[in-house]
TrEMBL record:
Pfam entry (one): ABC_tran
Name assigned to this protein: Carbohydrate ABC transporter ATP-binding protein, CUT1 family (TC 3.A.1.1.-)
Domain ABC transporter, first and last residues per copy: 4-241
Family as reported in the entry's similarity comment: Belongs to the ABC transporter superfamily.
Domain of life according to the entry: Bacteria
């Protein structure tokens, strides 16, 4: 296993990049601790695959360094980096048995037969496939094939990191939760550094202890699932994580107070000094309530999704979503919105522009 450090990393597919717009991966500085569970999360084209290929050694970055336990591995080959990788589509040999597939990475490295048998059985038990060890891989279901592919990545105990590249893409939705649970369990049992690459927020948030959110080649936030949900550092994080995502509303500052559609809005704390640019208020639907006073809005849509109701309203031409647990209003009703101050933030050019008030000095949370 290894601590992985990415230092001043940038990459362009152009020979002579002219500016930031020519870089598929903008400057990245990250530390991944030995034994951690991490996820790279973002939409297609955000730079996840480029970063993955750089870490695995398939790409040499245009600038910067990759360190494994402090050793410079920037130009090292994938084999020299000692990385195991699990891909979108199961990489197994259909003509081999499950046992032979799991044993192959060890046999290829000259491990003795007794150790191979022991490791294969340990991994098979973890994956709950001991009853199919002597079956041909060709006859397995897609989810079991992907289990074996995962097992091939986990069977070696000398790898620095195990990387998962969209490993559940081909798995039926009703089976995905089983494999997600199994993968998390495997990490807890083997304790190896694992990096999970995905565009699916559910996969990332249920697997990783730390999630790296990427957009347009840039890391916009690194944090725990709770941190990403509760305090997005960028409006993209608020949009991308959550269902529905965070409300991002146009704002202006008058006399040091944020306003939305002419209404003063109490924020989580003071606005950072020198804040300027495109201003927006961000608040998650979970923290938008309805009351007798507040910002007047018209109900446009009410969606009952079982455990709660999503209400979409309009304030002028701006849509706001609220998640309610009580009796919802009806379509066409006039309601009054109340924003929970401790969860209401100002963003400038997409980036968080408010500070947190210490709990000892925080005010009440009932204001609109």
């Amino acid at each position: 296993m290894a601590k992985i450090t990415l230092k001043n990393l940038r990459h362009s597919y152009y020979t002579n990049p002219k500016g930031p717009q020519d870089f598929a991966l903008k400057e990245v500085d990250l530390d991944w601790q030995d034994g951690g569970a991490y996820a790279l999360l973002g939409p297609s084209g955000c730079g996840k695959s480029t970063l993955l290929n750089i870490i695995s050694g398939l790409l040499v970055p245009s600038e910067g360094q990759i360190l494994f336990d402090g050793n410079d591995m920037t130009t090292a080959t994938p084999d020299q980096r000692n990385i195991a990788q699990v891909f979108q589509f199961p990489v197994i040999y259909d003509t081999m048995t499950v046992r032979e597939n799991l044993a192959f990475p060890l046999k290829n490295r000259g491990v003795d037969p007794a150790t191979i048998d022991q490791r294969v059985y340990e991994i098979a038990e973890m994956l709950e496939v001991t009853d199919m060890l002597d079956r041909r891989a060709a006859g397995l279901s897609p989810d079991n094939k992907q289990k074996i592919s995962m097992g091939r990545g986990l069977v070696r105990d000398d790898v620095n990191v195990v990387m998962f590249d969209e490993p559940l893409t081909v798995i039926d939705p009703h089976l995905k939760w089983k494999l997600r649970t199994k993968l998390k369990e495997l990490h807890q049992r083997v304790g190896r550094t694992m990096i999970y690459v995905t565009h699916d927020q559910t996969e990332a948030l249920t697997f990783a202890d730390q999630v790296v959110v990427m957009e347009l080649g840039e890391v916009v936030q690194v944090g725990t699932p709770v941190e990403l949900f509760e305090r997005p550092a960028h409006t993209f994080v608020g949009h991308f994580i959550g269902s529905p995502g965070m409300n991002v509303l146009p704002a202006e500052i008058k006399n040091g107070v944020a306003h939305f559609y002419g209404h003063p809005v109490e924020l989580e704390g003071p606005i950072k000094e020198g804040t300027s640019g495109k201003l927006e208020v961000g608040i998650r639907p979970e923290f938008v309530g309805l009351g007798d006073t507040g910002i007047e809005a018209h109900v446009r849509k009410v969606s009952d999704i079982g455990k709660h109701t999503v209400v979409d309203v309009e304030v002028g031409e701006h849509r706001v979503s609220a998640i309610l647990n009580g009796a919802p209003p009806a379509k066409g009703d006039i309601v009054h919105l109340q924003f929970k101050p401790s969860q209401t933030r100002l963003y400038a050019d997409g980036w968080l522009a408010t500070d947190v008030v210490p709990e000892s000095t925080a005010t009440g949370e009932d204001a609109a």
